[in-house]
Structures are given as structure tokens and as C-alpha cells.
Design a protein that fits this description.
CATH class of the largest domain: Mainly Beta
Number of strands: 20
Radius of gyration: 20 Å
Structural class: mainly beta
Distance between the termini: 62 Å
Order of helices and strands: HEHEEEEEEEEEEEEEEEEEEHE
Low-confidence stretches: 1-35
Length: 308
């Protein structure tokens, strides 16, 4: 009788959790994520510089316009390719006529700053830029990738309903014909959507923590003046932990449970990506406001440190 009662209690708990998940889906009205706080960082943990023993192995200080081709590989994508995003990605060296008739670029470097511009073109399309870290002679098809390290970037993101800026990582050695997402893994050092201003979101994606089954690893933190202010976003990544920070405040701390690639596909080289999306499943979950355009995401520097 006791075991039977225990089974009934167990079934009731499963039903309760399922109902709570359904209620969460109804509240958010989006298929992106309903954040879990299991791995939220600690306010008492601060990290504002590379730990002792780490050395600089790759960086872009954006001192020269040549950075756009020497340090980064742009993508050229049509709308809806991922996450139902509305922007058209084009390389920064392409002249694009905007809605006012002026010629603009999706990405440009001047005065020591990278600017990723999102604007409406004369053809009615929304244009922006997405770029991956690059290194000549790299064994990863020209992508600059690293396994473990301390990584940081100083970024100023825009405001506006529909904006979705991000600083994140994907495997540099991925073979899409043999593996897919989320099995390959993804590390989101910083994301923010204009619908939820000044909320930094950090996430990890893998087969074992996947938003489609509500097991994602994700945490968020309000950052004062995140929109239109300069913030340093960083990650400390080794074989045992991934820790994500904003201006030294820990947002997410995820330990390796050593169960293998289902929960830890983060034991391979990853490359960096900078992009400014418009709309999409998350960026547009409260709609978009084209009157906010044009907007710009600015990057002061990107630096990668590793132990020798």
C-alpha cells in the first residue's frame, strides 16, 4: 500500500510540473525559453580581469578598418534563415541604399570601434551584419576557434522594440552533414532583446539542456544602463565550469557533470560571433517598432586569453 501511495504522489508531481510548464508557455507566448534559475550566478562572485596565468592569444581592438576582413568573416543571409528573424545579413563592405537615399554599411570600423548597423533599406528590407571570428591558417576552415579560456568584449547595445544583439559562440570544427544543433553545443555569452530592456541573458544549449523540452540552462540579470551604455561581457571556461559575467557580476555558473557530450559538448574549439538581429522568435515576441531604426551595436574590443 505504501509503495502504491508513493507512486500516486509521483504521478501527481509529474502532472503538476507539466501543468506549470504549460502555464509558463501561455504566460510567455513564445517558443523561445522559459528561464530556469538552477544555474544562476552568485552576486558574491566577481571577475573583472583574466585570472592569473592567462595570456592574450587573440584580440581585435578595432584600430583599423582592415579588421572587418582580417579578423572577421561576414555572412550573407536572407531573412527567416534562423529563428524567423526579419533582417537580411550583408557584409560590411557592401554599399546599401537606405530608406532616405543615403548609402550605408551594415558594419564599419572607425575611431577604434566596430559598429554593426541595422537599418531599413530603400527596397524595404531590414539590413544588418553578423560576423564570425577569423584567423588565417586556422585548422577550422579559417575560423578562429579556441578550447577553454577567458573571453571578454566591451559592447554598447542599442534600444528599440525588435532589437536582438548577441555575443556568442559555436563550434569551429562542426560538420553539419554529421551533426546538428543543439547536439553540437552553443554558448551565449550575452543576449538582450529590446522588448525586455536592460536584461542580460546568458544561455547554454546542448542535447541535454534544450529549450524545446524546457531543460535549457539560462539565467538573466538586470544590468543598469545596459542599453546605450558600455558593458564588459566575459566568460571563464575550463574543463569543469562555464561562468558568464557582465561588468564582473556573475550571471550564470554551469558545472560539468562529466556525463559526456549530452550535457557537456563544450570540450572542443568554439568560434566567436557578433550580430545584431531584428525581430524573430525572441527578438520580436512583443512585435517590432521600425520607427526605432536605424540602430547600432558598438564593440570597443574583443579579447581571448588562455593558459599557456
Amino acid at each position: 500500500m505504501k509503495s502504491f501511495i508513493n507512486r500516486l504522489i509521483g504521478l501527481a508531481m509529474v502532472c503538476f510540473v507539466a501543468q506549470m510548464a504549460e502555464a509558463q508557455d501561455e504566460r510567455t507566448d513564445t517558443n523561445f525559453v522559459s528561464d530556469r534559475t538552477d544555474y544562476a550566478g552568485s552576486d558574491s562572485v566577481r571577475l573583472t580581469a583574466p585570472p592569473e596565468g592567462y595570456v592574450l592569444v587573440w584580440s581585435d581592438e578595432f584600430d583599423s578598418p582592415a579588421s572587418l576582413t582580417e579578423k572577421w568573416r561576414p555572412v550573407s543571409w536572407e531573412p527567416q534563415r534562423v529563428n524567423h528573424e526579419l533582417q537580411t545579413y550583408r557584409p560590411g563592405d557592401m554599399d546599401i541604399e537606405d530608406a532616405s537615399g543615403a548609402m550605408r554599411h551594415t558594419a564599419e570600423v572607425s575611431d577604434g570601434v566596430l559598429r554593426i548597423n541595422c537599418f531599413k533599406g530603400a527596397d524595404g528590407k531590414i539590413y544588418s551584419a553578423r560576423m564570425d571570428s577569423k584567423e588565417e591558417g586556422s585548422p577550422y576552415g579559417g575560423l578562429a576557434g579556441w578550447k577553454y579560456g577567458y573571453i571578454e568584449a566591451r559592447i554598447r547595445i542599442p534600444s528599440g522594440l525588435g532589437t536582438w544583439p548577441a555575443f556568442w559562440m559555436m563550434p569551429a570544427d562542426i560538420d553539419w552533414s554529421k551533426e546538428g544543433w543543439p547536439d553540437c553545443g552553443e554558448i551565449d555569452i550575452m543576449e538582450e532583446v529590446g522588448a525586455d530592456p536592460d536584461i542580460a541573458v546568458c544561455s547554454l544549449h546542448a542535447r541535454g539542456h534544450y529549450h524545446a523540452n524546457n531543460t535549457q540552462v539560462s539565467a538573466r540579470k538586470h544590468i543598469e544602463n545596459m542599453e546605450n551604455g558600455w558593458i564588459v561581457y566575459s566568460m571563464l571556461w575550463d574543463a569543469d565550469h562555464i561562468e558568464l559575467y557582465a561588468d564582473g557580476h556573475q550571471i550564470l555558473n554551469y558545472p560539468n557533470d562529466h556525463s559526456g557530450p549530452v550535457n557537456w559538448p563544450y570540450d572542443r574549439p568554439y568560434h566567436l560571433t557578433l550580430n545584431l538581429a531584428w525581430g524573430g522568435d525572441w527578438g520580436g515576441y512583443k512585435g517590432v517598432d521600425e520607427s526605432a531604426l536605424p540602430v547600432t551595436m558598438e564593440v570597443d574590443y574583443v579579447r581571448v586569453y588562455q593558459k599557456p
